Amino acid sequence: MNEIERLLTFTKEAVSPFHTVEAAGKLLEEKGFSPLSWKEEWSLNPGGKYYLVHHGSALFAFTIGKDAKKEQEIRMAAAHGDFPGFRIKPDPDMKAEAYIRLNTEPYGGVNLASWLDRPLSAAGRVAVRGKDAFHPEMRLVDFEKPVLTIPNIAIHLDREMNKGRELNRQTQMLPLAAMGTGVEEKGFFKKYLAKKLDVAEEDILEYEMNIYNADPGELIGFEEEFVSGPRLDDLTGVLAILEGLWDGERTGGINLGIVFDHEEIGSSTKQGAGSTLLLLLLERIVTALGWDRMDLLRMLEDTMLLSVDVAHGVHPNYQEKADPTNHPVLNGGFCIKEASSQSYATDSEAIAVVQALCEEEKIPYQKFVNRSDGTGGGTLGAIASALVPVRTIDIGVPLLAMHSSRELMGKKDMKALTSFIRTFFSAE
Fold it and tell me: What is the DSSP string of 59-75?
């Protein structure tokens, strides 16, 4: 199975942040990684491969070189497992005429129009009554098939729609779920959820459920040179990190791959890059190896973090939106992202390292910067490196239609990104 086949499979499985972590954990265990628990004592050994899940939607996987010493640096690569879309509110059932809709709220920067007229499904995490109040049973659920849609209005009823219109998030973006005729609309969603989980309705205490595009990803183009699919932001980064980590051949130091949650809403959560979690994890790793906190602080001087998230490729229909001299194209290689504002946490020293590795291995790369009269967002790199002050560089595959329910990338760029991260985790 090549990079693209794995990506298409992964995007089909990773339909919520919780499912992203679950799918990643399964892949890691297939590659010989042992699971760890935050509550237990850790016994780590040189040559070992381990992973840890934090609060269900963040994951840390690391390898310890067989010749690892405390004088050697840690190499880290981080991506995020969440994506823009919609979250289902509590008591979501709403009846309009004979229809039942679900009450939702946007999550992240959503391209609203791209979600219209799509086959949609729902997935996430459900808290079911457990052995006591402090220990609910946490269950993952995926409806697996299209059960929802957000129908557009006919152009006959809105003749000005092609001149541009603003969609109301509360009234015009609610997904249609069922016909109300003969259906008890009160508690409709909870009944469906209970049936899917095979539990009593009264045992469902709460849920974190998101709507996702149920269309599968696929190759398109006359020569199949493009990948069109949902959730490429940032499942491309997640999968490239996993593959680079388990293929990494470095015998010294520690390699660490990270999947954070909540990047699309600012990262300031217990599972996000804006928490102290990364630094606490690093301290646990080094102390489990018999080193101490001062050893860790010394190791950070040469440590490096790859912030792996997608970039904007130049759009052939909107070329004026690209920087006049730096305009990465699909299939031209992964992007190094720079910004004087440090919204991308990249500096010349980190760029030099990446470029040297790419030139040694003949891996194609490009540069991305925003136009000076516009902005293109930020990533978790600037946030994480403010809490763990190490050399950081933002990289990722270029996309068209970023934050749409379906995005477009170049097939060759996934190979370039994966090859680079593999090299990063292998070079001595």
Answer: EEEEEE-TT--TTSPEE
User: pTM to 2 decimals?
Assistant: 0.95
**CATH no. for residue 184?**
2.30.250.10
CATH of the domain at 69: 3.40.630.10
Q: Which residues lie across from 92 on neighbouring strands?
A: none
- How is residue 399 written in tokens? 């996309």
Contact 227, 9 (CB under 8 A): no
Q: Which amino acid is at 69?
A: K
Residue range of the domain that includes 17:
3-83+231-424
**pLDDT value, residue 96:** 85
Residue 222 is assigned to a structural domain of this protein: no
Kindly state the tokens that stand for 246: 């388990």
Same-domain pairing of 126 and 205: yes
Report how far residue 168's alpha carbon sits from residue 353's, in angstroms, rounded to the nearest whole number. Answer: 46
Contact status, residue 176 vs residue 96, Cβ threshold 8 Å: no
Q: What is the pLDDT of residues 335-386, one digit of tens each?
A: 999 988 888 888 899 999 999 999 999 999 999 999 888 777 788 999 999 9
- Cβ neighbours, 10 Å, residue 176: 16
Residue 9 in any domain: the answer is yes
Pairing assessment for the beta strands 398-400 and 407-410 based on DSSP bridges: antiparallel
The number of C-alpha atoms within 13 Å of 200 and in the hemisphere containing its C-beta is 4
In this structure, are residues 114 and 404 in contact, taking their beta carbons and an 8 Å threshold? yes
**Residues of 244-269 as b/e, b for ≥16 C-beta within 10 angstroms?**
bbbebebeebbbbbbbbbbbbeebeb
The Cα 91–Cα 369 span in angstroms is: 44
